[in-house]
Structure formats: structure tokens, C-alpha cells
Amino acid sequence: MNDLMTKSFLSYVELKKDSEQDVEKGEEKLSCFLGDIETIKTLTEEISHLLLELQNLNEETKSTHSAKILRGLRDRMESNVVMIALHPTIS
């Protein structure tokens, strides 16, 4: 009878230890996931800012008649597009 209780208790202790390790692994994965979310939020804000700037530059081109100013606006727009295209992505 004592042997049965000992085996049962040891089995319970092992099961509890395994579940604690699973919880720790889950917490690590969750913190990594939350870090990825923060990175994505930052990237989204940066890209949104560039998009807003592109829209503003586009509106400026509609009201500008000077070729020199238009070239400058176009260059800034191309620069923003390149920055968006080369923007790092989350892996």
C-alpha cells in the first residue's frame, strides 16, 4: 500500500514539475510575441508617417508650376517610396 502511494505521489510531483516548465515556456513565447507586436506597431507608425508625407507632397505638386520645385518634390516622393520599400520587416 505504501508503495502505491509513493508512486502516485512521485507521479504527481513529476506532473506538476512538467506543467510548471510548460508555463515558463509559454511565458517566454508570450513575451516574444508581445515584443513582435511592439515592433510591428512601430513599423506601422513609421510607414503611416511616410504615406502621409507622400500624400502631402502629391497635393503640393498639384499647386506648383515651377519645374525646379516639381523636380524637388518628385525626388522627395521617390525617396519616401524607396524608404518604404526598403523598410525592415519582421521575421
Automatic annotation (TrEMBL):
Record domain Syntaxin N-terminal: where: 27-84
One Pfam assignment: Syntaxin
One GO CC annotation: membrane
Official protein name in the record: Syntaxin N-terminal domain-containing protein
Organism field: Brassica carinata
